[in-house]
């Protein structure tokens, strides 16, 4: 009976070690790298890590090398299919070319979310993220 219960602890990452992974962080960054180690808190060690940013059909990469990620900052972790990775119809551009555009997109999104949070606060009584009553 116990074998039917899904393995949902950090131990389920054992099959992901030494595989290329995509990690999306709470701040929205997308990291690609080889998972080398993890612990019981799902803290991750990625090797040959690159941060990717996207805009339209273009992407840019910023190499980071060895990267330690605190488990509470991980939103999504997924394996990259190496056979299909190169088939994605995106063109690679220089980081310096795409980074200002990406920063502007991120700021516009932050402003929209701020306006939305204010409307929800004023009209529906929801608390703002990080504000009073946002204890999770």
From TrEMBL:
It is found in: Cytoplasm; Cytoplasm, P-body. Its main location: cytoplasm. The keyword Cytoplasm applies. The keyword Ribonucleoprotein applies. GO terms for biological process: deadenylation-dependent decapping of nuclear-transcribed mRNA; mRNA processing. Pfam families: LSM. Keywords: Cytoplasm, mRNA processing, Ribonucleoprotein, RNA-binding. Residues 8-83 form the Sm domain. GO terms for molecular function: mRNA binding. Belongs to the snRNP Sm proteins family. This is U6 snRNA-associated Sm-like protein LSm1. It comes from Dendrothele bispora (strain CBS 962.96). The lineage of its organism: Eukaryota, Fungi, Dikarya, Basidiomycota, Agaricomycotina. The gene is LSM1.
């Amino acid at each position: 009976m116990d074998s039917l219960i899904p393995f949902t602890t950090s131990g389920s990452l054992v099959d992901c070690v030494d595989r290329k992974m995509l990690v999306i962080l709470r701040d929205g960054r997308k990291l690609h790298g080889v998972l080398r180690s993890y612990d019981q808190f799902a803290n991750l060690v990625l090797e040959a890590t690159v941060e990717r940013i996207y805009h339209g059909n273009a992407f840019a990469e910023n190499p980071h090398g060895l990267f330690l990620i605190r488990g509470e900052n991980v939103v999504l972790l997924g394996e990259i299919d190496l056979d299909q990775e190169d088939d994605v119809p995106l063109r690679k551009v220089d980081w310096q070319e795409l980074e200002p555009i990406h920063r502007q997109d991120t700021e516009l999104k932050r402003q929209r979310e701020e306006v939305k949070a204010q409307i929800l606060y004023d009209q529906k009584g929801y608390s703002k993220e990080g504000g009073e009553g946002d204890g999770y």
